[in-house]
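Researcher: We plan to redesign the surface later, but first we want a full-length starting point. Tokens attached.
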């Protein structure tokens, strides 16, 4: 199934302990890049989340936003440096005795020293939360994939419309192209007659026309252009990411169209070449959105 690289997916779940919501947003990117924003205590899940999303997304940049509510993500413990506290109390008493100070030092004052008391957070491995997060990610990734496929279908429909118009232009050029040589012969013969009358070297004209016909022959380019279109249609039918391959085919089509424009010395063909370039540019814009 053809997929766009842009899309959005959202899912949420809750248990008796936790509430989890995931939002996935994807945009165009040359490769597959998944950025996950997680609380520090859940960083160990990053690789599992990326792997789960990678099953559904092969190309594009995906931003992952997780909202987690509930208790039990971390345990907090108090740590006291007893040796430092003993030294501080002893030093305080010595200062009071030496300077005959009567002010009492409170427990709060002693514990306000950040070097004595600290609160340590320890990450808790919670299987319930891990399972809930991965389930929500899977649901959001599926929704993202579905949206990308819907957009991909619309992209291909537009592209096939443009390809059909390109084929119409190619058909017109193929019908008209043989006349270019005869028109050139008529023009050169008319010009010679204007200058020297009816007495001229017929062989010289035939030689000039033959050289022009060889330079202006676009049959090979038209054949290759049609071949690229067929290859484009065949590629669309494959069940794999095709965006980069389609982009390459479009580049080859552009090369053939440019050659046709430079070789065919004719105003009518030049008009159709402009149309071909315009249509191909529209296809290129759409292809750049395909996974």
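Model: Full-length starting sequence:
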């Amino acid at each position: 199934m053809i997929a766009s690289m842009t899309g959005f997916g959202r899912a949420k779940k809750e248990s008796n302990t936790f509430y989890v919501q995931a939002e996935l947003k994807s945009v165009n990117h040359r490769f597959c890049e998944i950025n996950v924003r997680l609380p520090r205590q859940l960083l160990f899940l990053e690789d599992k989340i990326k792997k789960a999303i990678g099953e559904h997304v092969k190309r594009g940049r995906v931003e992952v936003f997780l909202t987690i509510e509930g208790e039990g993500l971390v345990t907090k413990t108090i740590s006291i440096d007893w040796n430092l506290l003993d030294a501080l109390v002893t030093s305080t008493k010595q200062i009071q005795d030496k300077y005959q100070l009567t002010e009492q030092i409170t427990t709060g004052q002693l514990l306000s020293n950040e070097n004595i008391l600290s609160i340590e957070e320890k990450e808790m491995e919670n299987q319930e939360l891990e399972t809930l997060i991965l389930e929500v990610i899977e649901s959001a990734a599926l929704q993202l994939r579905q949206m990308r496929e819907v957009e991909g279908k619309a992209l291909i429909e537009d592209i096939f419309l443009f390809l059909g118009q390109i084929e119409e232009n190619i058909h017109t050029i193929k019908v008209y192209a043989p006349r270019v040589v005869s028109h050139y012969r008529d023009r050169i013969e008319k010009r010679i007659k204007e200058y020297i009358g009816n007495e001229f070297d017929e062989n010289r004209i035939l030689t000039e026309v033959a050289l022009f016909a060889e330079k202006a022959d676009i049959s090979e380019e038209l054949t290759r252009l049609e071949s690229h279109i067929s290859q484009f249609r065949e590629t669309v039918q494959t069940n794999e990411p095709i965006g980069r391959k389609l982009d390459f085919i479009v580049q080859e089509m552009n090369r053939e169209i440019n050659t046709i424009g430079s070789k065919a010395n004719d105003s009518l063909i030049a008009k159709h070449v402009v149309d071909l370039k315009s249509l191909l540019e529209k296809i290129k814009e759409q292809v750049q959105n395909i996974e």
